[in-house]
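Quick start: what a row looks like.
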Amino acid sequence: MSYRNPVAVPYKNKIVEALPRLDAAQRQQALAAADYNVWRLRDRAVYIDLADAHGNGALTQQQWAGLMLGDEAYAGSINFEHLQEAARNRFGKPYLVPTHAGRGAEHLVLLAFSKNGQQVVGNTPSPTLRRLLERYGRTYRDLSVPASSAFPGDIDLEALEDLLRHEAAQVAYVVLHAAAWKQGGQPFSLDNARAVAELARAYHKPLILEATHVFSQALLLQQRIEALRDRSLFAIVRELADLADLVYLSARGDLNHHVGGMILADREEDYVALRSLVVVFEGLHTYGGLAGRDLEAIAVALQELSEDMLRFHRGQLQGLAQRLQALGYAVTDPPGLHGIAVDASKQVPGAFPAHRLAAALYLLAGVRSGPRGATLHLSLPRNVYTESHLDYVVAALEHLRAISSIPALKLIDDYLPMQDELARFEPEAPVNLPAWSPGVAPEPYRTKAIEPLILTTRTRRETALQEAGWNTFLLRSQDVYIDFLTDSGTSAMSHAQWAEMLRASETLSYSEAYDRFVEAIQEVYGLPYVLPTHQGRAAEHVLSQVLIRPGQYVANNMYFTTTREHQERAGGIFVDVIIDEAHDPAAAHPFKGNIDLEKLRALIQRVGPKQVAYVCLELNVNMAGGQPVSLENVRAVAELCRAQEIPLIFDATRAAENAYFIKVREPGMQARSIPDIFRELMSYADGVTVSAKKDLLVNIGGFLAVRDAQLYRRLEQFALRFEGHPADGGLARRDLVAMAQGAREMIDEDYLRHRIGQVAYLAGRLRENGVPIVEPPGGHAVFIDARRFLPHLPQDQFPAQRLAGEIYLASGVRAMERGIVSAGRDPKTGQHKYPRLELVRLTIPRRVYSRQHLDIAAEGILEVFNRREQIKGLRMVFEPPTLRFFTARFEPLS
């Protein structure tokens, strides 16, 4: 079932959109409302959308930045100049006419270069062009070679020459479509393009290149023609553009923008003719019906076009085609430039086979495909869906192969073969598809924006690690391929969070943004008094300074670095009261984050309750391997604390993940919802500190929340000196509303199942190959046991620090040490603290990476594991006075 694209994923997620999940009854209702034509479905009724790849891709972060740089001048926009320069660099043509879309460009070209009654000649055109020609009294002569040819997009040269010889006066121009409109978009060969250009010149006919998918076309030419292997894609594109008198394209194809098109011309007289038309139909010649921001984003797309991105998309298409062929589907081979064409009549005999197969696929799995005639198209938007999503699609189509009868449809209005999108049907009999359990759990979101990744070499990584002093914290992000350093502030935010951010007020006092933030925290956490801070350690600072008197004790279920630092800085004495199993990485206890009640009682009895400032209960204990606390244990701890009048404070940074573990691991919890469990969990706390950069899915921010109004006033007064106004905590209003939205998203069960499932998947890959890890896997990270991985290295040679460096060298994956370096030194003796756990943490950011990224990380770790006996230790050559793991430097022992 699973497929691994041979091309490494060249991006990570930046913005995601939750996928709508409709049950079978809801899908039945949605399809009936759409008259059993999947083209008519509303987008929010579709789980995975493969109907059309045009304008549906995920933009890069640079394109999104370009959208913010829009110069919305009516005339003379700087964005037009940027687009003109970028287009010239790629295509070599001096004149640019922007249009609102590709069909806008097509319209202007048709009017400028043809007359009523003339023919346009070329390879297979889109249905849109055919309709446009009919509207203006032109016809199209399709001279494509047979579909079985090596290059189905080629023009039949003999037929073209015969036509030009005998009917030249009737031919307006010749057009070559990169991705001829058949079988998912089929290419022409370079030799054919050269010959067509020669014929067009001989008969004085303009040759026009429709270049929407010309970069993908160049990639196929490079892959399939030996003589082109050493040429860059961009050089091939330039040659194709040089053959043509005119180039036009939609920016919704290879340029992967949501809107826009353009025409590029060699001759000034052609430009003048087009410019005269653009002001009639599109807009001024310097914006062509586009906002300045879209001109800028298209310019960026031209500049940053990546061969890695094109190859990855091609690998996805080829892999999907191969898997469907293996299932017995009649799939065009090779797949097209932007999609896969399936002959539905081979699977579904009778009328409307593609519409029927599309309806069945939607009813079964919520997947929308593109029925056209007898062909079902599976178009693949760029950078949107992962291999897990495609596994789900393949599983659904495999199930459909076993169904003997796909529901029959009959028309309920007139049907035009070229207007599949408008047809309306009804089933001839009640639709009852067999039940299906997919057995595949893809990401519960699709990608809206991406950040391109740099595929580094071993040599470059060796230099980078040496410059960083073998401290992965000091590596530059541009030298990292997959970043598992932390899940703090590294999440991909949702499109809803970004929308809220753009709407947020930036006033300097209490605002709607603050009110919405407080309302969300009160709703989700159930604590009434909420104080924003710039991040979690700021909340720890405020709380520690207000609640701890010098000499008091603070009981914790294992230390966390910044938490302990703030407690001790306030004069507190840290005491670890976690259960013993937490210090044993091989122990299989389901709730290794639990507080040992006897240890806590012994502390209270020894020092007295007045000398315990508070009990700090961390949920999903980070340093123990992301281990959860049971609801039963929380109840017992709360009961003990209230009986002794000791405040119980939660470090609730990963409380949503803890709630999920309670649901799946604790007896009697399986039927309860995550929000219900979460709310009860929070009910036992007198206060919480939260780094919103984890569970709340934001890049910055934190908060304190308490039940006692008098305590809140003390916290508020202290925070005012360090954080900012109590209504903002030093944060922009956009960050407050992003946290508010994130608080609601974090308790979605589909999201949590996938998030924790990613950790379990990576842990499973390592475990099955003998790599020693902390068991059971936690909620945010996989922790490798460096003691067992490198048993020949003593702890004062920093085995976990060395292992983190070796993993980076092998694969470009950045992890971090959680052992002796993180533990620091004893302030009394000055000696290293020797923690029982010597770990390397592989922390998985939320909604950022796909399963293929995890596979690459696992393979790199296994490469290190196979040569572990040759690995030597490190010596520390620079040590800061506090929190040394952030900036200490090391060098290898010889």
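That is the whole record. The chain has four domains: 11-20+27-53+317-419+427-445, 93-303, 454-483+751-892, 505-746. The radius of gyration is 31 Å.
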